[in-house]
């Protein structure tokens, strides 16, 4: 995928297809990092949420920090070394997330951008990735195995849960941001 456009900021917005909800993210390129700032509102499993998130990545799209805060006052702060080791913002290690280079936040398609941008892809190439999944109901991160297969480099990917419980095709734009996430999200900005 080509280098991230050197713009002040790129924004995207999605609406949920399976429940009411919106997600808006602004992605900015800074001299030493890429920062995503977003807001997601909606409901999953009958539980409403309002979440602000900030994800800092290094220039290789490796997640280095996550800050989450909810409209009801809960929060989560994680830091990562970019090599698959993570910790709470307090420095407490998270051995259960060992090997997780990317995040998956439950209420936003933005986090699919992270492995799509971080890795080089050839048509037909498939990779199983270990993700740090953060559900918006509990904010307790867990390791989650996910499979990405490149259908068309820089444009279309197949996503599949490693336990085969879900799969969908993802279309992305020139920045690796999802434009269509079959069954779950549609891009509106």
- Radius of gyration of CA atoms, rounded to a whole number: 15 Å
Category from helices, strands and their pairing: mainly beta
The unreliable regions are: none
As laid out across the biggest beta sheet, the strand order is 7-6-5-4-3-2-1-14-13-12-11-10-9-8
Query: SSE string, helix = H, strand = E?
Result: EEEEEEEEHEEEEEE
Total strands: 14
Q: How much of the sequence is in beta strands? A: over 45%
So what's the overall shape? globular
Oligomeric state as shown: single chain
Mean pLDDT: 93
Fold and architecture overview:
- The protein has a 14-stranded mixed sheet.
- The mean pLDDT is 93.
- With 189 residues, the chain is mainly beta.
- It is globular and about 40 Å long.
- Helices cover 3% and strands 53% of the residues.
- A hairpin with a 7-residue loop joins strand 9 and strand 10.
Q: What distinguishing features does this structure have?
A:
189 residues, single chain, 14-stranded mixed β-sheet, 1 helix, mainly beta
What secondary-structure arrangement, pairings included, does this model have?
Layout: E1 10-16, E2 21-30, E3 33-44, E4 47-57, E5 63-70, E6 75-80, E7 86-88, E8 102-105, H1 113-118, E9 126-134, E10 142-152, E11 156-161, E12 167-172, E13 178-181, E14 185-187
Quick overview of this protein structure:
This protein is mostly beta strands. It is built from one helix and 14 strands. The radius of gyration is 15 Å and the shape is globular.
């Amino acid at each position: 995928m080509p280098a991230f456009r050197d713009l002040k900021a790129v924004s995207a917005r999605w609406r949920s297809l399976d429940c009411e909800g919106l997600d808006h993210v602004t992605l900015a390129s800074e001299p030493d990092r890429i920062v995503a700032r977003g807001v997601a509102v909606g409901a999953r499993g009958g539980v409403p949420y309002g979440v602000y998130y900030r994800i800092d990545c290094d220039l290789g799209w490796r997640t280095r920090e996550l800050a989450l805060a909810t409209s009801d006052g809960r929060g989560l702060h994680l830091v990562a070394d970019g090599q698959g080791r993570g910790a709470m913002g307090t420095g407490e290690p998270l051995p259960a997330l060992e090997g997780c280079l990317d995040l998956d936040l439950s209420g936003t398609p933005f986090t699919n951008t992270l492995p799509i941008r971080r890795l080089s892809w050839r048509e037909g190439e498939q990779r199983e990735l270990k993700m740090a999944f953060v559900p918006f109901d509990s904010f307790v991160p867990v390791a989650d195995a996910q499979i990405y297969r490149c259908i068309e480099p820089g444009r279309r990917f197949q996503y599949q849960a490693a336990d085969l419980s879900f799969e969908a095709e993802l279309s992305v734009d020139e920045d690796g941001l999802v434009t269509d996430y079959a069954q779950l999200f549609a891009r509106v900005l």
